[in-house]
Design a protein that fits this description.
There is one protein chain. This protein is of the alpha+beta class. It has 2 domains: 104 residues, Sandwich (Immunoglobulin-like); 232 residues, Rossmann fold. The strands form 3 sheets. The protein has an 8-stranded mixed β-sheet with strand order 12-13-15-14-16-17-18-19, sandwiched between helices. Strands 4, 5, 8, 9, 10 and 11 form a 6-stranded antiparallel β-sheet that branches. A hairpin with a 2-residue loop joins strand 8 and strand 9. The longest helix has 18 residues. The chain is globular, with a radius of gyration of 23 Å. The N and C termini lie far apart (74 Å). The N terminus is likely disordered. It comes from Rhabdobacter roseus. This is Enterochelin esterase-like enzyme.
């Protein structure tokens, strides 16, 4: 048996730190804590103060285990097997702040991490991990009046079924039964569904906090399935907007206006979406400019003055993306729109890419600009 003295262990630690310094790396802080998105009572996955993630999977008979996750995870993390049958590994570098989907590959099969909660994305329920953000206060659960997110089922003759949507109503909606509210129709991205903006995006908490701070005029948010998952990855050009446009314009909006206290006119109706939801937003607002007065594309493309020329003038065009995406294109589009006489605003989320922290921040910036 090899026995180490404290002096020997200290020497090892100094040598390891020196090697990291020579390699230009920063030592990983061993202050890991369970992710806030873990299953109740589960210790892993964990995150540390630097944004690294650590995973621990029990698979005693497996030959290989890899975690595949988002942008900061460097494409995948190979886990190492211990004598106890647990595989453990840490990301090669810190991850971007905010929410990330991930999954576990065990001997070639794809699984979810039993320690983490699941979120619908990439056309399947995947594990989720939250890297604490320096600005997470704006979507934190606070002791403020809260609105309500309720599921509705609305009839859809065009699809011959009942379809689902989630509706956020602001604090006080049930008490002040005479007040009517503007409405934002907020769309998810490819591979997600109508649960995304609440579960991953925390839209309801963003709204509650902004309302409590007196920064926005309270409004309703409607989130429904965008009929996107029938399109396979890489075949977005095959997507036809007409079926969803019919559901939204001819079925959902009339249902919402007849079952909720809405201000049912163009000046009090907005549409916005992230990623493919932005593509849907752009197409529908250009097809139906008399329906929506406010437009928002969150990592979802841009409008040009030529797109809007000759149509009912929008009251606001909001364009955003992460600084790791294509911010110059967003900024130029807004400059061009302003020069053409349109009220347009750009927002760039610093140090994020095509991910929910970008879209949380974008909604936080968009909401105070609506329904002025």
């Amino acid at each position: 048996m090899i026995r180490y003295t404290l002096t020997t262990l200290f020497a090892f630690a100094l040598a390891s730190a020196a090697c990291l310094a020579q390699a230009g790396q920063t030592a990983i802080a061993e202050d890991f804590k369970p992710s806030t998105l873990n299953q109740p009572g589960q210790e892993y996955p964990q995150v540390n103060s630097q944004g690294y993630a650590r995973f621990r999977i029990h698979a005693p008979k497996a030959d290989s285990v890899r975690v595949s996750l988002g942008l900061g995870g460097r494409g995948g993390t190979i886990l190492t097997k211990g004598e106890d049958g647990f595989w453990i590994g840490t990301t090669a570098g810190p991850m971007d702040e905010g929410f990330h989907y991930y999954n576990v590959t065990i001997d070639g099969g794809k699984f979810n991490d039993p320690g983490a909660l699941n979120f619908y994305g990439s056309v399947r329920w995947e594990s989720g991990i939250e890297i604490p953000a320096h600005d997470q206060d704006f979507y934190a659960l606070k002791d403020v009046p809260h609105g309500k997110v309720e599921q509705i089922l609305f009839p859809s003759k065009s699809t011959q079924t009942s379809r689902r949507a989630f509706v956020y109503t602001p604090p006080g909606y049930d008490k002040n039964t005479s007040q009517k509210y503007p409405v934002l129709y907020l769309q998810h991205g490819w591979g997600e569904d109508e649960t995304a903006w609440s579960n991953q995006g925390r839209a309801h908490l963003i709204m509650d906090n902004l309302i409590a701070e007196g920064k926005i005029k309270p409004f309703i948010i409607v989130m429904t399935y965008g009929m996107t998952n029938e399109v396979k990855w890489g075949r977005i050009r095959d997507f036809s907007i007409e079926p969803f446009q019919t559901v939204l314009i001819d079925e959902l909006i009339p249902y919402v206006d007849s079952h909720f206290r809405t201000l049912a006119n163009r000046d009090n109706r907005a549409m916005a979406g992230l990623s493919m939801g932005g593509m849907e937003t752009k197409t529908i607002t250009l097809n139906k400019p008399d329906v929506f007065g406010y437009y928002g594309l969150l990592s979802g493309g841009v409008y040009s003055p030529e797109d809007l020329n000759g149509k009912a003038k929008p009251k606001l065009v909001f364009l955003s993306c992460g600084s790791k995406e294509r911010p110059d294109g967003v900024k130029k589009a807004v400059t061009d729109l302003k020069a053409a006489g349109y009220n347009s605003v750009s927002y760039i989320s610093e140090n994020t890419a095509h991910e929910f922290q970008t879209w949380r921040r974008s909604l936080h910036q968009l909401a105070p600009l609506l329904f002025k």
